[in-house]
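F.,

This is the one I mentioned.
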């Protein structure tokens, strides 16, 4: 097998085609008539390609990308998708062994099983979770950790892709060996090297923005939860914690914490948001590094957003997928009402439309505009600042703003064909 080249150039939005208009990329009827069956379509970030897994023979599968077929075929293919740099990646099996295929070329090494493809922020690095000889670890650009473990999960990759981590089991214990379990059998392995300290449980390891540090939720006893940073725990324990986050300004660590039956926020173990919420999680720092946002429930079953501990007045039974504007103070999230209809909330106000589904919203580069893909009555369309596009489609992908924010690229399927279209903001009425 040929080894994948990983030094491919990253796709830059400025180099994409931003001429206004619709371009037909390929007919999808070719795919449905050429093969016995096909799987879900995947669109490239620049919209110029579309791909899917296809059954090409009795027990053979391949990938069809805009009419071109990967050769040779494989026994199994799954987790097909495009990376941030536009390369098409899939997990493939041949003769019962799994590897990674990138643009049709496979890594040299094979494994008993692979899952959970991850990419660095620029897409140059590809990592996967792996099982080999009933031990578990990670493989980065075809290179496995030097040590695999009896159990590994909660895999993570740094933004640059130069470091990787996972929760690992360091000691074997019988199914009913409660005493051994309570002494601590789990820790975080970074690049395959486990922390020296072990815990009752560990969850969600996260890297600092520069990848130099790592933090995780830990349970030090059956009843005490806290955060460990580079294996060192906060000096204070809580009744519960959620996923930690590094502050981009000073590398401090913040995490939602539970105390006296309520949730708040702590920084390096010290309370910064008083525990007054029924729930508090999914925190993010604004891009100007000044404000901390989170999804909160000021009352049971009433969710909204909070900035620096101050909750919005707009409340819904469900709020999820918090996103922040690249500049300024704006935030947005998805919200579901008591009729199971979805919308977008931003600036403490809900968009007027209600939909069967809404996908995470996207801010323009200057943060002034917000666009999202939505579904209604089995059809898909796009909404900009609460205004719907007049057309609907059979399938669609997330919209993308041009670098200047004046145009939006749409990717969709209609009338048995895949299209790439660039529109102006004025096209939303």
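My design for it:
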């Amino acid at each position: 097998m040929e080894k994948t080249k990983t030094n491919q150039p990253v796709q830059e939005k400025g180099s994409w085609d931003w001429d206004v208009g619709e371009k037909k990329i390929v007919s999808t009827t070719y795919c449905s008539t050429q093969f016995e069956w096909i799987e879900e379509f995947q669109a490239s970030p620049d919209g110029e390609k579309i791909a899917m897994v296809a059954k090409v023979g009795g027990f053979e599968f391949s990938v069809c990308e805009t009419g071109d077929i990967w050769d040779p075929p494989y026994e199994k293919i799954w987790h097909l998708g495009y990376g941030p740099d536009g390369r098409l990646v899939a997990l493939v099996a041949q003769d019962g062994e799994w590897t990674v295929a990138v643009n049709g070329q496979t890594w040299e090494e094979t494994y008993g099983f692979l899952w959970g493809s991850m990419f660095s922020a620029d897409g140059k690095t590809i990592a996967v979770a792996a099982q080999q000889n009933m031990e578990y670890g990670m493989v980065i650009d075809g290179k496995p950790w030097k040590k695999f473990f009896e159990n590994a999960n909660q895999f993570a990759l740094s933004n640059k892709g130069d470091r990787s981590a996972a929760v690992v089991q360091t000691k074997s214990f019988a199914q009913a060996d409660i005493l051994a379990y309570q002494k601590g059998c789990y820790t975080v392995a970074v690049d395959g090297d486990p922390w020296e300290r072990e815990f009752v449980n560990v969850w969600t390891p996260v890297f600092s923005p520069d990848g130099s540090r790592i933090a995780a939720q830990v349970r030090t006893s059956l009843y005490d939860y806290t955060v460990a940073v580079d294996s060192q725990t906060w000096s204070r324990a809580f009744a519960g914690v959620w996923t930690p986050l590094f502050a981009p300004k000073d590398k401090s660590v913040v995490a939602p914490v539970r105390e006296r039956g309520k949730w708040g926020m702590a920084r390096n173990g010290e309370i910064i948001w008083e525990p007054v919420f029924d729930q508090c999680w999914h925190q993010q720092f604004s891009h100007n590094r000044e404000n901390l946002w989170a999804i909160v429930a000021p009352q049971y079953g009433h969710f909204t957003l909070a900035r620096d501990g101050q909750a919005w007045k707009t409340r819904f039974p469900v709020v999820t997928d918090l996103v922040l504007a690249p500049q300024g103070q704006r935030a947005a999230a998805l919200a579901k009402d008591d009729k199971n209809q979805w919308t977008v909330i931003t600036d403490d106000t809900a968009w007027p439309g209600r939909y069967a589904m809404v996908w995470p919203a996207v801010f323009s580069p200057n943060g002034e505009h917000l666009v999202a893909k939505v579904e209604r009555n089995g059809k898909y369309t796009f909404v900009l600042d609460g205004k719907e596009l007049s057309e609907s489609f059979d399938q669609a992908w997330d919209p993308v703003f041009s670098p200047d924010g004046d145009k939006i690229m749409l990717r969709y399927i209609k009338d048995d064909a895949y299209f790439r279209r660039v529109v102006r903001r004025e096209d939303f009425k």
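The chain has two helices and 43 strands.

Talk soon.
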